[in-house]
What does this fold into?
Amino acid sequence: MDSNRREAAKRLVDVCWNLSRTNWHQSPVAGLRSSEMWTLYCIKKNTDLNFPGIKISEISTFLRVTSPSVTQLINSLEAQGLVERNIDTEDRRAVRIKITEKGERILRKAAKALHELFGGLVEYLGEKNTNLLADLLSQVLSYFDSVRASDI
It folds into this structure.
């Protein structure tokens, strides 16, 4: 790698490191970790009022984390009254997770805070730069997905 590319790579690493340290992605709801918030969002996104809930293994797949990690998250969310477990009516060995009304309220509050945060960022960057940033970040994701796929 030539020195210009090395310097550009170093700058990119530094910016990504500093961005990760801003904690912008932390939960906007006091008392909840971002992992708990993402788990709530995953449950909400993948169930509806007529559906009995989602299995831990399905949450694990969506979030790309292990089932034991998801179980710990669900235990915490259940203790806070944000989700409930129900026995699957078709397979009594399976447990389904469903969000509670309290969990729904928390998600609405978090969504509002997140939209305000990113609305401010759009205002700060402008629409043109925001769209450019979104396009570039999409390319970054594609690159890292392809690198991960080639490692398998």
